[in-house]
Amino acid sequence: MFSIFFGFLCVCVPGSGQQPSIQADDGKRYICRAVPLSGDASCPVTLLPELTVGSQEEELRNTVMQLRETILLQKETISKQVGTINELTTKLSLCASTTDDRKYDKGGSWGKEKQNTMGDVPRDPSGSINGLGKTMQGLKDRLENLEQQQSRANISGAPFPTELRDLLQRRLQELEKQLLRKVSNLEEEKSMLSNATAAYRLKTESTLNALVERISELEKGGGDFLSPEQFKVSLPQRTNYLYGRITKSLPEMYAFTLCMWIKSSALPGIGTPFSYGVPGQANEIVLIEWGNNPIELLINDKVAQLPLEVRDGRWHHICICWTTRDGQWEAYQNGEKLGNGDNLAAWHPIKPGGVIILGQEQDVVGGRFDAGQAFVGELSQVNIWDRVLKPVEIQSMANCSSYIPGNVVSWLASNVEVFGRGAFKRPLEVCQDRLPNA
Fold it and tell me: pLDDT at position 289, please?
């Protein structure tokens, strides 16, 4: 083992071969450095600036490492935010597709798999809305984390990309607006579905009630008639005491269709085959032909003349359609539309709780008849619907290919009463015998 000895040389050699001498202080400073004895004896001097450069390199190296860590952290944050944005976009798309599926859903059936027979509102979308809200809260939390990271970066002196934060904040605001619009649209669709379901439920219940009545009459047998609707009311004289009365009243209606089979040869006019009066308005709905005037339709005392001709002593099938929207009306005879118009008691709803009289015009509700306006002839299958029937439905009844009972008033033997000596309910000929070419 060899030992290495170090010595400290602190010398100044002003000249070779001369002894050192004491000199005055010239303002210069010298440093001492440990060198091996076998090393260079020229006494190399290391200046102080070399130490300063090493310190700066170390500081720069630390700064580069911090910047590298910051860049990696930013890349990871950007990746997370991109994933979150894609996730939220997917959820919004799923929400929109769920809304479309509900919009075009056709309802249930009477089977065991679907018990929703009344077209109830689909499952409430609050679950998906809550999910979107949680996602938005997650985005906000991540934005707060970014702001905290910015604060830490500011403390450490490392730069933080404010552009990224501003971009994410703008994107978050846009997503919040989209979420609010989606929630508003869902609420509107839910309200519309609720209204449509209520209307569909009322319509279905009314149709089912009419069918239940018909089934009940069929089970009872309908007296002397082949079926409950195969009868006619005969009013052979023009008096003020022969008439028929329908025991059911009308609900409030914003549209209706009135159909009947009618036969008359009375002159100068057939009179009043149908009238409906309510308290305060005896002429709520009236169908009348008196004198030399054409057949007229009165609604709330407003008049429209109808192009119908039935005074030939033969059976005719007539239908009158009306809607409160602009007061539009249509008149059919033997399945063919002969006329239409508007502005007949526009925006006036048909009032409920009145009295339906067959064969007389009411001056007060249910009475005070005038013999000069009485109907002379026969009536059958007087039905009323709370909607405007389609032309194909009217035509199918007129040519005897089908029979559609009214969902508001149906022609049943139990629903019709006759009054006065000479008024009768009698069996009706088969439908084909009533056709014009029979």
Answer: 93
CA 137 to chain centre: 28
- Residue 428: predicted pLDDT: 86
* Residue in the structure block whose two tokens are 């009706």: 428
Tokens describing residue 306: 């109808």
- pLDDT confidence of residue 22: 47
Q: Residue 275 in contact with residue 357, Cβ under 8 Å?
A: yes
CB-CB neighbours of 1 under 10 Å: 2
Question: Is there a contact between 398 and 381 (Cβ–Cβ < 8 Å)?
Answer: no
Residues with Cβ within 8 Å of residue 286, at least 6 apart in sequence: 272, 274, 275, 276, 296, 297, 298, 361
Give the C-alpha separation, 222 to 90, whole Å: 63
Confidence of residue 112 (pLDDT cuts 50, 70, 90): very low
Structure tokens at 71: 């860049």
Greatest Cα-to-Cα distance within the chain, rounded to the nearest angstrom? 169
| Distance of alpha carbon 35 from alpha carbon 28, whole angstroms | 22
* Cα–Cα distance measured from residue 418 to residue 360, given in angstroms and rounded to the nearest whole number: 12
Range list of H helices, 313-407: 391-398
Residue 61: per-residue pLDDT: 72
Label the pairing between strands 6-8 and 34-36: antiparallel
Q: How far apart are CA 189 and CA 87, in angstroms?
A: 25
Contact in structure between 316 and 260 (CB atoms under 8 Å):
no
Cα 236 to its chain centre, rounded Å, is 54
* pLDDT classification of 185: cutoffs 50, 70, 90: confident
**Nearest partner of 182 among 317, 299, 54, 88, judged by Cα:** 88
* Helix 126-156 and helix 162-220, axial crossing angle in degrees, nearest 10: 170
* Alpha carbon distance 293, 55 (integer Å): 118
Contact 139, 175 (CB under 8 A): yes
| Mean pLDDT confidence for 150-172 | 65
Helix (H) or strand (E) holding 206: helix 162-220
Using CA atoms, how far apart are residues 313 and 316, in angstroms rounded to an integer?
9
Q: Which of 201, 308, 321 is nearest to 259 (CA)?
A: 321
